[in-house]
Amino acid sequence: MKKLLIISAAVLSVCSCGITNTANTNTKGSLYPKMYEEKPVTLLILPPINNSANVDAKEYMYTSISRPLIEQGYYVISPAISMDILKAESAYDAENFLVGSLVKFKKFFGADAVVFTQIDSWAKVGTCINTNIRIFIRSTSSGETIFDRQCNLVLDMNVDYFNSSQTGLLGSVLNLATAAIKTAATDHVQAARVANSYILKDMPFGGYVPDNELDKTFAAGEPNITATVKW
């Protein structure tokens, strides 16, 4: 019991899982008009720019971003296939292409746009993984940024296995202890999938989704937000 109380105190003191909800009237069309103007179909994902202290965060994000983009209706060039070509063409470091022409990616891959990921923080804190991630997309034709969203996300792994209202203090302590164990064994790739899906959920649909071009009036969240995602 004493050990469980120590765990609960530690978890409560280090995990900051606040949530910010801001009412807005944004639509996909108002936030991302250039996506509708340029109508990209084929996307190329560049290796993420990792500014965080977690050296593995780059791999977590790179291996998990394709699926949410495909689910949004885009054809995504396989990162596994494009990796060798990017290295051979000295195009592995995305930092080199933040500005300037992206025509070479249209020439070699047939990509309409290039997907950039910037990881500014990725750290496990108590029962949470705290992240700050930006995903933005640049057109290979115009060079303009056509999608840009930055999210300060707290991925909350806390689980409610026990009904604390019925079990009282013991139930609360056991919940915290269980969450701490879960966090210690967290699959960071799964966490990256959750983060990518959340950030890209307001991205306008691509040509492989029936609602393509019809979602301009769909509600969309702020392009720069702080939120907690429980999973």
CATH architecture: 3-Layer(aba) Sandwich
Shape: globular
Strand count = 7
Task: Report how far the terminal alpha carbons are from each other.
Answer: 27 Å
- Assign the CATH class: Alpha Beta
The average pLDDT is: 82
Spans with pLDDT under 50 lasting ≥5 residues?
1-14, 16-22
Round the Cα radius of gyration to an integer and report it.
Answer: 20 Å
Residues in helices, as a percent range: 25-40%
H-E string: HHHEEHHEHHEEEHHE
Task: Characterize the biggest β-sheet.
Answer: 7 strands, mixed
> Which structural class do the helices and strands define?
alpha/beta
The total number of structural domains is: 1
Q: What is the tally of helical segments?
A: 9
CATH T-level topology: Rossmann fold
CATH homologous superfamily, by name?
A: ABC-type transport auxiliary lipoprotein component
Beta-strand proportion: 15-25%
List the SSEs and their pairings:
Elements lengths: L1 H13 L13 H4 L1 H6 L3 E4 L3 E2 L6 H6 L3 H6 L3 E2 L2 H10 L14 H7 L3 E13 L2 E12 L5 E12 L7 H21 L3 H13 L23 E7 L1
Parallel strand pairs: 1-3, 1-4, 2-4, 6-7
Antiparallel strand pairs: 4-5, 5-6
Helix pairs in contact: 1-8
Description of the molecule:
By secondary structure, this protein is α/β, with parallel strands linked by helices. The protein has one domain: ABC-type transport auxiliary lipoprotein component (Rossmann fold, 3-Layer(aba) Sandwich), CATH 3.40.50.10610. Helices cover 37% and strands 23% of the residues. It is built from nine helices and seven strands. The protein has helices at residues 2-14, 28-31, 33-38, 57-62, 66-71, 79-88, 103-109, 164-184, 188-200, and strands at 42-45, 49-50, 75-76, 113-125, 128-139, 145-156, 224-230. Strands 1, 2, 3, 4, 5, 6 and 7 form a seven-stranded mixed sheet that branches. Strand 4 (113-125) and strand 5 form a beta hairpin. The two termini are 27 Å apart. The relative contact order is 0.23. Residues 1-14 and 16-22 have low confidence and may be disordered.
